[in-house]
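Page 42, continued from yesterday. The earlier attempt failed because a stray header line got pasted into the input along with the sequence. Redoing it now with the clean sequence only.
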Amino acid sequence: MPRLFIFGLGFSGRGIARRLAAEGWEVAGTTRSGEAADLPGLRHFTFDRDHPLPPGALAGTTHLLSTVPPGPAGDPVLEALGGQLRGLGLAWAGYLSTTGVYGDRGGGWVDEESELRPTGERSRRRVAAEAAWLAAGLPAHVFRLAGIYGPGRSAIDTVRAGTAQRIAKPGQVFGRIHVEDIAQVVRASMARPRPGAIYNLADDDPAPPGDVVLHACRLLGAEPPPELSWDEACRQLSPMALSFFADNKRVSNRRIKSELGVTLRYPTYREGLAAILEEDGQVSGAL
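This time it went through. Structure tokens are written below.
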């Protein structure tokens, strides 16, 4: 039986774990808290720089995925376990990165062959981490993710919570990817391994963030929040929130389609938000 070990059972890691477990894989992974109550039957371990894996945690692992972001000192997984990982004889390894490595392109298109021009420290760390994984002596694949959304983490949720914002920055667009499509692409790569490959994970419609909020409001029958000018946003938002607007680009997803044969389940945010609302309605009705 194939065994997948996931470093970092966060939002994306959990989605991938559920998909593979449903296919009959043995799945294990790590969390910072050591808890994963929503993943019954999955073995999980605490792991960070101060909490090493217990002996035998990786035994039998055939496929390995890391979603753990790098820190100032580099990639914590490779730093702690690089030699041990090389000794596993893995059939496949993957690293989840970000499209932030491309930097700002003024709304222009990028693909996997585009020059990397990270604009912030977090993105520069990602560039270094990608290079480290590709040079680690593992059958590594890199996945560059656009903005991740899904049930519990979408414009539907922020509109309902009253925290949604419409920020008017002319020409600004963002790419997005639904968590289920992340799992789909990772699974397709496992079925067609090509060590050293890099894949962009983004949907077909890079769009202004305000458009997504407006669409969520229409689906919910909610009054849209007032629009903030860019000058107002700069005065009100935190430096972290503003940093997401530093880059403006459109990300090509042609490679996942041509090389991995992927058809996105949610090709735009419209299908993705509608599915989240429908799923929520089904759950609410069942309760």
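Notes: Confidence is low (pLDDT under 50) at residues 283-287.
Reminder to self: strip header lines before submitting.
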